[in-house]
Amino acid sequence: MPTTISTKDYLLDQAKRRLTPTLNTIPGLGLVEKRLNERDWKQFVLAEPPPGSGLKPVLGDAGLPIIGHMIEAFRGGPDYVLQVYRKYGPVHYAYSPALSSVSALGPDATQEVFSNKRKDYSQKGWHPVIGPFFNRGLMMLDFEEHMFHRRIMQEAFTRTRLSGYVEHIDKVASKVVAEDWPANDPRFLLHPALKELTLDIASVVFMGHEPGTDKELVTKINEAFAITTRAGGAIIRTSVPPFKWWRGLKARKVLEDYFEKRVQERRNATGTDMLTVLCHTEDEDGNRFSDVDIVNHMIFLMMAAHDTSTSTLTTMGYYLAAYPEWQERCREESERIGDGPLDIEALEKLETYDLVINESLRLVTPLPFNVRQTVRDTDLLGYYLPAGTNVVTWPGMNHRLPELWTDPEKFDPERFAEPRAEHKRHRYAFAPFGGGAHKCIGMVFGQLEIKTVMHRLLRQYRLELVRPGYKPRYDYAGMPVPIDGMPIVLRPLR
Ligand code: HEM
């Protein structure tokens, strides 16, 4: 059974959720947030534009001493950023001791940053956020070097390769969902259970362990992986024992040692897991990854795939429970493809799922923002940005703009279907997978994984809210996470 349900661990988990003080759980902070949102902060100029350039200066503020706008941002997420957009326009600076940055808001600003022809925006903006833990992952590389690596990695995401991954994903998902998840239990928490499931899937699909084998090693690596992933959210952002950053670096070393050994094993082996595939893929010119490249790419890939898919599945589970008519539409499609082993062709028939997945990604965008850094002085929508400025685009906020989306707060998957196709109102109206050269390479993989898990779940259970009208609250300190773990009741269908 998942640790979140067995009594001791379940109680500990609940206690941790309630008692760990965060900007979302400390009583009274709701009122503080409201006051801060109403306040008019004194604005200053980030940098004077060069005389005669005709560019406008970027204005900004520092918020509260030391913590800047953390309270509003961590509690409100994209809703807070929407207020900033309404008040100050598409380009606004926020000073912060942790990461000062210019927000590039609205679809035009997103487009200018993602599709910038002059190559003014580098991935270096991500370095202070997750750099030491995901060093030289694909997303951290720039320009020519990035293209070189991306071309080789692309070979690990062809349709044939994806078919191999789907087979692995399905084996793990159908077993866990059917055998390990407790039915009729209002204590069941969907988010941690899905986190565990997607990690189980990763140990087979990414690391190449047969399901249920090498348990001790897999557990150790999964723990190291979880610590590494969490380290980017550390408040003390330097290596001081025993704090998060320090633990993250130690855990990264465990992952490096593990993957270094595994690369040696898999170089001469055959297999359809991602690690073995990366050991063999080459681009059209015969270029291949070095051992060190594979280690760095694997650590990043696992991170990139894990929380994003978990988040989407959790959101989808919630909305399907809250909107039973959509759950039924999805289940009818699932009935049509039945209980046999899944393949890509079968998953492609789940078209209602596509609408619901998109609507879930719109309403709770797993990676609501993307970070860049200017490599030279440049301009963004006529505003002057000096070299070295961190720039943050906010697809998660664009997904809530009433000028792009009809009734944006409403769960309405049909908006993605023709003839409405609201996502086509602007090239960057909908960008949960980013855009431009760094657009998510695992987009189709993620969609296939989500469909596989949800198909298995809906064939087995009816998803119900824990009480009528239940609405989750999210912590936006990193990726959006439901604060209470998202209780959902699984009612067996037969
Ligand atoms: C619903 C699931 C997912 C979402 C919402 C998502 C979102 C994103 C976004 C927004 C980016 C762009 C970041 C930027 O521009 O800085 C990105 C990049 C990336 N994603 Fe995903 N992702 C998902 C699943 C996956 C999966 C399953 C994998 C791997 C199997 C993956 C691997 C990557 C990689 C390697 C990059 C970097 C691409 C590059 O820099 O060229 N992602 N993802």
From TrEMBL:
Which keywords does this chain's UniProt record carry?
Heme, Iron, Metal-binding, Monooxygenase, Oxidoreductase
GO-annotated molecular function = heme binding; iron ion binding; monooxygenase activity; oxidoreductase activity, acting on paired donors, with incorporation or reduction of molecular oxygen
The UniProt entry, under SUPFAM superfamilies, shows: Cytochrome P450
Give a yes or no for keyword Heme in this entry.
yes
Do you know which Pfam families this protein is assigned to? Answer: p450
Q: What are the binding positions for heme in this chain?
A: C440
Which BP terms does GO give this entry?
sterol metabolic process
Required co-factor(s) are: heme
Spell out the family assignment given in the record's similarity comment: Belongs to the cytochrome P450 family.
Q: What is this protein called in UniProt?
A: Cytochrome P450 family protein
Can you name the source organism? Mycolicibacterium hassiacum (strain DSM 44199 / CIP 105218 / JCM 12690 / 3849) (Mycobacterium hassiacum)
The organism that produces this protein has a lineage beginning with: Bacteria, Bacillati, Actinomycetota, Actinomycetes, Mycobacteriales
